[in-house]
Design brief:
33% strand, elongated, alpha+beta, 8-stranded antiparallel β-sheet
Length: 165
């Protein structure tokens, strides 16, 4: 006796072919999308010439050790678009600087990088205004404090709602 609901169709080779084509088309589309996004978001270039960059490594390491021996401490703050930086010595006394520059680098999107020259403000603090974008940033602060080379401090910060966390 036949069912009154309808005739059941068989699963054929054509159905399997359609499923396989749809499956692999989805995988290929996702791979092409991911490869396009990866290629457009970061060049992968860390330095233009790694051999030349490596030549100065020991010199930079020695400069870093000499700078660390100064025992200076910097304070970087940001709130409501205002960035402020101050530098104190081991005894907590302010260190006089003639110029301070902050460079904000995004760890992935180099096109988002920006810098600001901070102006002398009240006391020994330097400040400036800039629209702060949320995210993780690597901040390099260069302070001219009368040494042969600028005092450099590098820190990784997270900015959320216009302020450093």
């Amino acid at each position: 006796m036949k069912s009154q609901i309808g005739i059941r169709q068989q699963f054929t080779g054509f159905h399997m072919l359609c499923i396989m084509v749809a499956f692999f088309a989805t995988i290929i589309a996702v791979n092409v999308t991911m490869a396009t996004l990866a290629g457009s978001s970061w060049s992968g270039l860390v330095v233009k010439n790694s051999y030349v960059a490596g030549q100065g490594f020991n010199r930079r390491l020695q400069e870093s050790r000499a700078q660390r021996a100064l025992a200076l401490r910097g304070t970087l703050t940001a709130r409501d678009g205002e960035i402020a930086y101050g530098l104190v010595d081991a005894q907590g006394k302010p260190v006089k600087a003639t110029a301070v520059r902050a460079v904000f680098r995004h760890p992935v999107y180099e096109t988002a990088d920006w810098s600001i020259d901070l102006k002398a403000g009240d006391g020994e603090r330097f400040s400036g205004r800039h629209d702060l974008r949320d995210g993780v940033w690597i901040v390099t602060i260069e302070s001219d404090i009368g040494l042969a080379r600028p005092y450099i401090e590098v820190r990784r910060v997270t900015i959320r709602d216009g302020g450093i966390l």
